[in-house]
Design a protein that fits this description.
Largest sheet: 3 strands, parallel
Strand content: 15-25%
Helix content: under 10%
Number of strands: 8
Distance between the termini: 16 Å
Shape: globular
Oligomer: single chain
Structural class: mainly beta
Number of helices: 1
Order of helices and strands: EHEEEEEEE
Amino acid sequence: MAGVVSGWGTGEAVADPTTAGTLYVNHDGACSDTGTGSASMPFCTVQAAADVVLPGQTVRVEAPDGLPYVESVALTRSGTEDAPITFTGAAFAPGGSPTLLTPKGSAPALTLKAVYASSRWRSDTRARTR
């Protein structure tokens, strides 16, 4: 990733239950994998958000610089039919790029481990993997 990313930590992050149901990931600028994932101090990695997301919450993955998140994410937390966990890419401006999750090495970009998966699929999803 280009640029300087501050706030890379090794402590344990905790989801902020007061964060109106949305956790933020943005590797541009100030971020922290040990914080609460707020809009003002987002997580640096998708994995940090996946580790703490709660049923009913949305993880909004942003990449204003257009660079992909190069990581392999394992989701081990589960939502429910009434309170799903949603991962979404941020809306992008015309001519912008979608948020990408690119696998690290030969590992898959996303692994689901013992989670509830709905058969519903939203066609307006802008986050994708390559």
